[in-house]
Structures are given as C-alpha cells and as structure tokens.
Amino acid sequence: MTFKGESAMTRARYFALLGIIGVIPWAWPARAEWRIWTTSDTVRVLRDDAPGETAEVRLFAARNECRGFQILMRSDRPLTGVAVRAGDLLGPNGNVLPGAAARLYRQHQFELTAGSYRNDRFRPGWYPDALIPMLHPLTGAALGPARYAAAPFDLPAEQTHGFWVDLFAPPDAPAGTYRGVYRVTAEGEAAVEVPVTLTIWNFTLPDVPSVQTALGSPADRMRGYYQKRSRAGKEEPPSDWAAVDEQCAALVGEHRINATPPRQWLIPVERPDGSFRIPDENLAALREFVDRYHVNAVQTPHPSSAVKDPTAERDRLGAWLAAWDAAAQSLARPNVVFYTYLKDEPNDAEAYRYVQTWGRAIKEFRSALKVLVVEQTWTQDSAWGDLYGAVDIWCPLFCLHRQDSALERLALGETVWTYTALCQGARPTPWWQIDFPLLHYRVPLWMAWNDRMRGILYWGGMSYWDQTEDPWTDPWTYGRREEGRSLVYNGEGTLVYPARPAGYEGIVPSLRLKALRDGIQDYEYLAMLDRAGRRAEAEAIVRELTTSFFDWNPDPAAYDRARGRLAELLQQTETP
Fold first, then answer.
1. Partners of 301 in the beta sheet?
2. What backbone torsions phi and psi does residue 541 show, to the nearest 5 degrees?
3. If you ran DSSP here, which 8-state letter would residue 489 be given?
4. Does residue 571 have a pLDDT over 80?
5. CB 399 within 8 A of CB 549
6. Could you tell me the pTM of the whole model?
7. 117-141 pLDDT per residue, tens
8. DSSP annotation string for 225-278
9. Omega of the bond prior to 152 within 30 degrees of 0, cis?
10. Contact status, residue 183 vs residue 88, Cβ threshold 8 Å
C-alpha cells in the first residue's frame, strides 16, 4: 500500500483508524535510549556502571602537557557502527587545535572474577584497561584487520563501554580557552554532540621530566615473551625489532617515562692499556636517544660484567668507572643520572654483605655512576650491619618507607626513590593491580614529591606477560595457581599490552599508564613551584590530600581541584 499524492493528514487518519481496530500494517522502528556521558576524573567505569549526568568535557592543561578524558555510552538496545569523531578546538585569535591531532582509543574490558591480594573491596565485573588505538601511534595510518578494532564498534544492550581521548597542548599554543565538539555516531541513530573545552594555562612544562623513572624496557621483555611462544609453536616474534624498539620508546616517552636505550650502546670496551671507553659512535647514538625521548636516568650494566672482585680488582673497577665519568662529561647532559642497579631487595645477611662490598668499593671513586639498591633507608637486621656508605639511590617499597630515616640520608646528599609491591602484614598503600582504584597510579607521585623522593621504579618492563596465555583475555599476570601459588595479582608487572591483536607490532597503552602519566605531570607542577621558591605553599596543598603512603584522599576529583590551585600559583610566578 502506498500513499503517493496523499496528504500527511490523510496518512495520519488512516493509521489512527487502523490502530483503533487493532490492525498495524508495519511498525516504525523506535530509536534506542542511548546515553552518552563523559568524565576526566581518574576513575575506571565498569561495564555494569549506570550512566553519568553530563556529556560536557572541561579540561585544563599547561603548555606541553597531555590531558585525557573518557566518552562513555550505554543503550537499552544493541547499536552497531559506533564511532567517535574529534572536532577542531578553536581558541583565541583564531588559533586551532586540530581534531586530527587528538589520540582516540576504545577501552577494552576484562572480566575479573577474583580480586587481587589484599583487595578487600573487590567487586566482580568487567574492568576496562587496555586501550585500542584508532590509528597507528607512530605513522598515524589506518590499521588493517585485527582481532580488536577501536571503531566502528558494536555496543551491546545494557552494557557500559567507553572511549579514551588524549588532547595535547603544544608548547607554542597561546594561553586561553579552546572550544569544539566531538561527535558520537551509530548506525540508524542521530549523532550525539559532546562539547569539549580545553583551557591552556600560561606556563609550560619542560620537555625533560623532573621525576626520574625506571620502569624497564617493554621491548626487551617482549623478546623473551615471543621467544617462549615461538618455541611452543604458538606465535612467531615480530620480524622488525628495530621498529618495535622505536614504537615502544616513543610510547613510554610520550607518557613522560624514561625509554631504555639499547644495551649495546652502554658497554665500556677495554683498550690495550687496560683502560675502558664507550665508543664515540655509541655515545653519539645515546645522546640522540636521550634528547629525542627526553630521558633523565639511564641504567648501566652492572660492573660485574668487567670486574669479578671489587676489592682484589680495585684498579680495574676504577678504570671501568672512569669510562662512565668520561661518558657523562662527553654526553654533556647534566640532568641525566647514570646508575647501576646493584641489588634487588637484599633480604638476608649475605645480600647485605654483597651491597656493602660492591657499593662501598664503587663509591670510593666518587664516580658519576651512582649505586641504586632496592632497599629501605633503615636497616632490616642490626646483625647484618648497615648499608650506609654503600648506596647513592635508595629505593624503598611504598609500605617500607620511613620519612624520618629517609631525611637523614637526604641530608647527606643521597637520593630516595620508591616502588610498589605488596607487603604482607603492612598497612594498605596504593597497590598497582587492575582491580584497585585507578587513582592508585596517580597519587604515589604526590606522595613521592611530598617526601622529597626523586624517582619511581617498577618491575616487569611494563610488559610482564609470561604467566598468562593471552594478556588481552586473561589479566591474571602473576601468581598463577598452576605454579603452586594461589594469590591473584591482576595486571601485576604490566602497564601495556601487545599491539599485534590491535593491528600492529609493539605495545598499546592502558588506563593505568594514563593515570601514571597524570601523576608524573602533577609532580612537574610541584617541582616547578619548588624551583620557584614556593615549596611551602605547594606542600600545604599536597598535605590536604596525602600525608604518607598510608594516608590519602580517595576522591579522584580532589586531585584535579588541587592541581588547579597549583596552576594558579604557577601563573603568578614569572619563572617557575
């Protein structure tokens, strides 16, 4: 039946009549109840979470800073072809932040049925973490067919899913407010507009971060992962490791984390006269790497690679260390710290003797090469002696840090870093597993700055996938039950995921990595105020949120409010 030539009123009367007598020739498709909302807080939104209240985004950033937000969605009916399009942001005097410069990702979810050790507030559910890029992160090219694609995305009914957006404020961007609109589309549905406002403050973050990071090399850890899978006949390694190295270094550098230079550049070569030297071509390559990725700390080989007994071979040790003195002078990057990772968690008398012997022998030479030991600043057992005079950089666990003891070491010119792991019997700290609040990855940087710590360390190279068959489907990365362990550590040792399932070789980031980047940027605000002579004012703000690794405000929004207050102080400071 057609109504060609009939008036709209005629058609309406006809269908009204059919409705009265109970005849419906066909049903007009009803639109889904599609809810879109946003958040820029450091929170993880689970699949069963109810919709939020606002679809508007309001961000604040310094120049040379990256800020992220989430676009979340839920529908009472399945939707197909969901996608997000970034619009240009228009600012003062016609300046534009192009939409094409934004980084867009879809959040990939995992079902967690068991909580990590000591997570008393765990609730089962689907947790987002891995971020699937829309485009290749280095080339910007479209990604080919893959197991996981960011968009278009089919949204199941009654499930909450989300996209992540990174906005970068360029170093030369004029301060002011930039406005634009993002569009969320789906097949058969009207597009939803998301108003986005980015206010750029009138100060600039330095290229080289103030906080030193030692999170390892994702590419190095991946080599072992793929070798193991290749031997088992499951998966072949990438064919171009140089490209993987470059992509990994770029991604961690973009998140203000130290990239790891190739090991072969860092090996002092012995010469016929018994001296050692790092070849000039390696130093040139190292200098270019440090500058490109804004590196501020480099882990060197352990001196035992050339010296077996630091006491009996004292002169040889001195010659090996002199190579690093010459390298530091030639590199001419005074903000770069060279350190050797002398010992990991010395927890018995023998390990203490090892640190005492090696550390004191190295420090005799007052070398540019510093001694890092993953240990707290106080002595575990007085019967073992102490490590004083053997350590330049102390790295206590969050839960084993004592500020009174640390201040004594700082007064002597030594340095304190920190790192996270679960301490049995200790009070809760911001532990790093997927099922703990996302804020746990941001707040330790506030704590570290407050306690005058200069660095943060993490094990696993950010890519410890050895104990899981597929990191994209099984996030139980450590403490496998079949290996005699029953404790769950969801995501332990990881902050990134293998990129092959997303359509390229390398790594993809996670929500946890984004939260860590936010903390590193927060630390920069604090460090800039410290350098400007306004530490006391910054400390007053920080201590409203946290006073130790055992005490912090759990409200994520409080940190952005505090960050805004820090920005106000920086904008009052001429040379932060």
1. none
2. -70, -45
3. E
4. yes
5. yes
6. 0.93
7. 889 999 999 999 999 999 999 899 9
8. HHHHHHHTTS-PPPS-HHHHHHHHHHHHHHTT------GGGG-PEE-TTS-EE-
9. yes
10. no
What pLDDT is stored for residue 479 in this prediction? 83
Residue with tokens 């929500």: 511
SS3 readout for 525-550: HHHHHHHCCCHHHHHHHHCCCEEECC
Return the residue matching tokens 């549905």.
189
Residue 398 pLDDT: 95
Amino acid occupying residue 463: S
The CA angle 263-516-345, to the nearest 5 degrees, is 55
* Token digits of residue 460: 């696993």
The residue type of 532 is A
What pLDDT was estimated at residue 30?
56
**pLDDT tens readout for residues 324-363:** 999 999 999 999 999 999 999 999 999 999 999 999 999 9
Rounded Cα distance between 215 and 496, Å, is: 11
Kindly state the helix (H) or strand (E) to which residue 352 belongs, with its residue range: helix 349-363
DSSP state of 321: H
* Alpha-carbon torsion angle 483, 484, 486, 492, nearest 10: -40
Give the C-alpha separation, 171 to 532, whole Å. Answer: 20
Structure tokens at 24: 């419906």
* Residue among 211, 253, 261 at smallest CA distance from 509: 253
What's the chain's length in residues? 576
Question: For residue 190, which amino acid is it?
Answer: A
| Cα–Cα distances in angstroms (integers) from residue 3 to residues 20, 24, 410, in the given order | 20, 16, 86
**Helix (DSSP H) and strand (DSSP E) numbers for the chain:** 11, 27
